[in-house]
Amino acid sequence: xxxxxxLAKCAWGQTHPNPLVGAVIVEDGxxxxxxxxxxxxxxxxxxxxxxxxxRAPKAGASIYVxxxxxxxxxxxxxCTDAILHSGIQKVVVGAVDPNPDHAGQGxxxxxxxxxxxxxxxxxEDCLDLNLIFNHWIVNQxxxxxxxxxxxxxxxxxxxxxxxxxxxxxxxxxxxxxWRRYFxxxxxxxxxVLHDDPSLTSRMDGETxxxxxxxxxxxxxxxxxxxxxxxxTDTFKDRTIVLCSADAPTELHEKLxxxxxxxxxxxxxxxGHLDLAAFRNxxxxxxxxxxxxxxxxxxxTSLIEGRLADYLFSYQAPKFMSDLETQGIGSGRKTxxxxxxxPLSKVRHAICGQDVLTRGxx
Length: 361
Prior knowledge:
It is a single chain. The protein is an alpha/beta fold. It is built from eleven helices and 16 strands. The protein has helices at residues 2-8, 45-53, 79-86, 105-112, 123-129, 131-139, 169-181, 189-195, 249-258, 275-284, 296-304, and strands spanning 22-27, 30-36, 62-67, 90-95, 116-119, 143-150, 184-188, 201-203, 206-208, 211-215, 239-243, 261-264, 289-293, 310-315, 344-351, 354-360. The protein has a nine-stranded mixed beta sheet with strand order 12-11-10-7-13-6-14-16-15, sandwiched between helices. Strands 2-1-3-4-5 form a five-stranded mixed beta sheet. The protein has a two-stranded antiparallel ribbon with strand order 8-9. A hairpin with a 2-residue loop joins strand 1 and strand 2. Helix 3 packs parallel to helix 4.
């Protein structure tokens, strides 16, 4: 199952809105064929593995698959049918399909046909593989994930705004990996003005550009003649600016001249762009996940308003020790630890000297 998980990751970020899935066929204790789901509309992992085998499995053969085989015919046919026709007699499943309309049906069909089915092998790892798919298929809304890089005392930058770099190279490389996982990235206006980020994923000599959202209520990122690179680079058609209806007309016109897309969103009671409306608009466009790279203001809104579903927090072993440097928080005046905002299903990773903590809000 561990090998099937690694196979699934070969299509990292390429299968949306479908899940990442890996499968291996085992005969006499040996892996004899393997496969993974490459992209939506292409063969599922089980079918791919059977195709690689290219013969009838031996008696007693097993297939290990990270996600319950599908039981309904989509664009590529039901995997349960392919397994039944193959003659395989044992199926080992990592995680049950989270889709409430399908959950457990494939397992029941296989068992009803006399096939031995084992469920839950490396289940938590198999579920963690598909954070975006699992959320989308149940809620039909995108997974909004907040990412931040902090010092030990919770600071994002120096008092001057200088923030390059809070974390080290290995943590920044891990961010590139997660950028590749999500179909869209979002940042606030301050991040664009201070850091001029490219918001691309740069891995193994390849540059990949997701959809790039810029939260900029009043279009301040367009106020200067020196434009940020997300408005001028070769991927500018992947940039979408999020603003309010009361942003200056001349700056709206400037966006149009540049050929940059714009979504006009309502403003919430706290004076920020309405993130619920943003989530709904993403759902309409079938953007299944957004990786939101936060500064302190945006992070505070997302966390205190429970507007993010998931959190990535990279922490560097250093202190700013500066009261003038902004961190997370709006002065909630909490009176007990019971008022703290917790994470669940927490995972940790060491990235060089830095630590990643991630989990559901």
